[in-house]
Amino acid sequence: MTTRPLGAQISHMLKARGVDVIFGIPGVHNVELYRGIEEAGITHVLSRHEQGAGFMADGYARATGRPGVCYTITGPGIVNALTALGQAQSDSVPVLSVSSCLNAADLGIGRARLHDMKDQAAAAEAVCGWSRTAQDAASAYALIDRALTEFACARPGARAIHVPIEVLQARADGFPARPAPAGPPPPHPDDIARAAAMLAGARRALFVFGGGARRAAGAARRVLDLSGGAAFTTMAGRGIIAPDHPRLFGGYLARPDAAAVFASADLVLCIGTELSETDLWRDSLGHGCPLIRVDIDPAELADDTRAELAIPGDAGAFLDGLAAALAPAAPGWSEAEVREARARWRAAADAERPGVLPAVEALRAALPADCTIFSDMTQFAYVATEVWDMPAPGLWHHPFGFGTLGYALPAAIGGKVGLPGRPVCAILGDYGFQYTVQELGTAVELGLPLPIVIWDNGKLKEIEDSMRRSQIAPNAVVARNPDFLALARAYGAAAAEPKGQGALKAALEAAFAAKGPTLIRLTPGAVG
């Protein structure tokens, strides 16, 4: 086996495990990690901030289904990335962070050191699935394989590995052979049989498909058709059921009166969803009937939403088994009741945030149907993620769980790096854009044909509306914006401000054909 400094061995190991791209920023502490990147044949993407590197790794992972990897330095580098790692953890996105850290002899002894902090691993532990320090090469190799194995066979999320500077510098023997590939555990056949019997005895079964079922869309559609049931999807599960399915309630799960729909069901099946606060925005589904839950993470099956049948295991294997066990049943839901509910909820979304829906529909008509979209925390996205059905799963990515501003631009850069031949678009608000605006430099440097659509209403409109609802005089919700078009051009990006739907479509077509990113500024009333 070839002996190299451990920093170089880590890059070679990641390449051997299938990693082709690493996002990050080199520094004096983690420079050894960069020794082996080119030799290993890995592409490195230089972000402008460590938070951007983490979001890029997140976007790459969501777009490709493969782990996203980022390299950061000791102390402030990993701390800057923690928001992105927290977002990946909350949304079950496989992101691996590899950071340098201070040598054990330097911790808390004598004079302060560069990038010193009390407990770097503990800081990352607060937002990651786990955070560990590797004190030697064998530990580093074991932790990398542990993270990659968990990504493949358990609920993914963020994992953080820290390696002392002297350990990165020390020569190390080669890494071990790759462990046998592992997949997610299948559910027990008896659980599938019991679920099939309960479903066969139901007349108005109601499904909730979450992001954990997005790779099982075919089986989900077969089960829905065979059972005669109806379905909601979580925001992360949109596209699992075809948008023209006559019994699809869509992404309106969080509508308050959706609880009445659940109250009329005689069996509810929740597959691959946490049923988190941001999925429901109410305390319960509203059902009074038996509940079946399927999740790869057993901890989710023991939360406050108690199920009569809680099934640990892979959603795809469960749905395949269920489809094989079902006989066709007549629909228990009328197409009219589904259609009327969707129309009512669409109208409510329009009324709650006036002026947004026409712009959403204009953008929807102008984008390719297979476009992969990354959105930010903005009213435009809040409306779109309810009313805009996806033709397939995994096409719309949003920071649902941690819920941070500044996600969309760097995540879309990572997504486009992972999908170079596919259309990718970022959608964000005027305020959130300024959290990570510097990553425009990365997009320009890479020559990415990436439309960046900014919804510019000149304020934190969602917060202003919230203050008014709470009878608080709006305060600190208006900020002076820069000239976004000039700012984009200063970075070397193209810029456009279309007026009308035809101009929007032309601007997007030009953006997808460009040799770099294009900022497209939309204002209320400009295109719809």
Low-confidence stretches: none
Number of E-state strands: 20
Secondary structure tally, helices: 21
The fraction of residues in strands falls at: 15-25%
Mean pLDDT: 95
The class by helix and strand makeup works out as alpha/beta
Shape: globular
**How large, in whole angstroms, is the Cα Rg?**
24 Å
Strand count, sense and barrel status of the largest sheet are: 6 strands, parallel
- Biggest sheet strand line-up: 3-2-4-5-7-6
Number of domains: 3
Query: What do we call the CATH homologous superfamily of the largest domain?
Result: Thiamin diphosphate (ThDP)-binding fold, Pyr/PP domains
Classified by CATH, the class of the largest domain is: Alpha Beta
Distance between the termini: 63 Å
Helicity range of the residues? 25-40%
CATH topology of the largest domain: Rossmann fold
Report the CATH architecture of the largest domain: 3-Layer(aba) Sandwich
What's the quick description here?
This protein is an alpha/beta fold.
